[in-house]
Structures are given as structure tokens and as C-alpha cells.
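Format notes (please read before filing issues)

Several people have asked whether sequences and C-alpha cells are stored in separate files. They are not. Every record keeps both together, in the order shown below: the sequence lines, then the C-alpha cell lines. Line labels are part of the format and must not be stripped during preprocessing.
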Amino acid sequence: MLAWSFVTDEVGYLMLEQLKGLRTDVGGLRADVGGLRAEVGGLRSDVGGLRTDVGELRVEVRGTNERLDHANLRLDTVETTIRDLAAQMLLLGRFVRHVGDKYDGELESIKDRLATVERRLDG
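Then the structure lines:
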């Protein structure tokens, strides 16, 4: 009986030591969980900040898109104006060439008549 009591005392002691070890492990795990909760809270805060940044960027992008749309409209107007001016310059160039050709012929005629008058006066 004495041997049995020694075994039960030894088993009880070992179980008590294991329980103390488990309590220590549970305390460490609780501390780890607390640290993880703090990290998760920090990450949530970071995500909230990132969401705010994304929202600000979206507003900025919308503003940029509006400015680009306005600039594109102005560029379209400038392009149309340049095309109109090019067409007008082409027409004006053709007109000037036509007028020049017309007066070149008349100038030749005037030069011929002037030469005739000069010949008559000289001779």
C-alpha cells in the first residue's frame, strides 16, 4: 500500500507540474493574443487611412479627368480653327496666284506698249 501511495503522490506531483506549465503557456498565449489584437487594431487603422487616401486620390483623378476633358475640347476647337485657317490660306494663295498671273499678262502688254512708245519717241 505504501508503494501505491508513493505512485499516486508522484503522479499528482507530475500532474501539478504539468498544470503549472500549462498555466504559464496559457498566460504566454494570452499575451500573444493581446499583441495580435493590438496589431490587428493598428492594421485596421492603417486600412482606414489608406481608404481615406484612396478617396482623396479618386477626387484628384476626377478633377484631373475634368481638366483633361476641358483641354481636349479646347484642342478640338484649336484643331478645327487651324484647319479652317489652312483652307482659307489655300484659297487665298490660289486667288493671289490667279491675280498675279492675270496682271503678269497685263504687265507684259503694258511693257510692250511702253517699248513701242519709247521707240516712237526715239526715232
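For reference, the curators noted about this record: The mean pLDDT is 85. Residues 95 and 111 are 24 Å apart (CA to CA).
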